[in-house]
Specification:
The protein is of the alpha/beta class. The protein folds into 3 domains: 2-188, Rossmann fold (3-Layer(aba) Sandwich); 203-291, N-(1-d-carboxylethyl)-l-norvaline Dehydrogenase, domain 2 (Orthogonal Bundle), CATH 1.10.1040.10; 293-433, NAD(P)-binding Rossmann-like Domain (Rossmann fold, 3-Layer(aba) Sandwich), CATH 3.40.50.720. It has 18 helices and 14 strands. It has helices spanning 2-6, 17-28, 40-47, 58-64, 101-112, 130-133, 153-158, 176-183, 195-226, 230-238, 259-274, 279-292, 294-304, 330-337, 364-368, 381-384, 388-394, 409-414, and strands spanning 10-13, 33-36, 69-72, 83-86, 119-122, 140-144, 163-167, 190-194, 311-315, 342-346, 359-360, 373-376, 399-401, 418-420. α9 packs across α11 (259-274) and α9 (195-226) packs across α12. It is globular, with a radius of gyration of 24 Å.
Amino acid sequence: MSGAEASPCVGFVGMTHLGLVSSVAGAERGFDMVCFDPDAALIGRIAAGMLPVVEPDLEALVVRNAQHLAFTADPQALRGCAVVYIAPDVATDDQGRSDLATLERLLAIAFDNTAEDTVLVVLSQVPPGFTRAHQRSGRTLIYQVETLIFGRAVERALYPERTIIGLDDTSQRLPPVYRAYLTAHGDPPLLPMRYESAELAKISINCCLVASVSVANTLGELCEHLGADWSEIAPALKLDRRIGPYSYLTPGLGIAGGNLERDLATVLRLSAEFGTDAGVVDAWLANSRHRQQWAFDVLEAELLTHAATPRIAVLGLAYKENTHSIKNSAAVALVRRLASCEVTVFDPIVTVDVAPAARRASSLPECIAGADAVAIMTPWPEFKGLDPAAIVREMRGRLVLDPYRLIDGTAVATLGLDYFTLGAPPLRAPRHLNA
């Protein structure tokens, strides 16, 4: 392809989630990729096919593009690259603060092991001011807003909806070799702007996402008490052009993962520094904490207060489907709050122990067997096919929590169980069935 001819070699520094998926996407577009990480053990595992992340289609793309992917722990391999992305995952602590030490170390390695005319691109998310502070005289340093979404990372890397580009000087033209690489990925709209605008654009996008989630959570909770159904309201909002057909309007169990929380924490710190008002961000965070404990509140009201040793089945531990990440997972928080109960957990991907007393099941039926309550905490595709009749046969109790509406609530109630979801009143089993 023409992009591959213009850029015979593109480098990615940092082989965690963002860098690995992005480099594989470049190989799929026909580019020769140098995939560098200083962790030789990590590189060895990746080269052997043991990928550190789980994403749909990722393993197949690695195999299919093996001839275009060179995994290495030798930084000198970057010397032949025309464009080099610095793309490690940026970890956050419990207060949403970013640990930039790894990114800064890898950026220094990239500067020191590339030619002066190599285009360097920071792809990791950074706070406003980072890119300009790390610019070096005589070098081309660009900040590109990443579009990583856990569970959809490959799709987003291959088909970006737009590319936001931070530049030192917005009057400068994009380097041709860099532009050729970008336009090979589905020819997305390119939006050049100053460094600081691009850095803040990512935060702005996530703030709008959080606002949509908070609207759905706040009004969805009212639905539970008013007899309204949020699933009936959301389509009306999506047809409002001021909101848009692609708005995120599904109630959820609080803000999970790390990126959204990090951006809110950044806004709060900047607001405190400059004396601006960010009270709405505090409200968003409070709403998130409130909704994260929804499952526990239902269990406490419906079961825990009158059952001596309740058995609870928790289906899903990942904070969302199609990922192994449990960062800020509502499911994990629930399991840890149920320490006094008999808890059995099942997740098709997550294998880490999240609570000492929780028993891990090897299958869905094993997890549900004998449970007084079933909480479907992650919307895994595997859970969408659950047969309500099978749940009834396996359980000894009658309580089902399905926040994401993966199964037919009406069928569940008809079969004698009480069904709770987000954004709608509970569906109770007919009284004569529970007599």
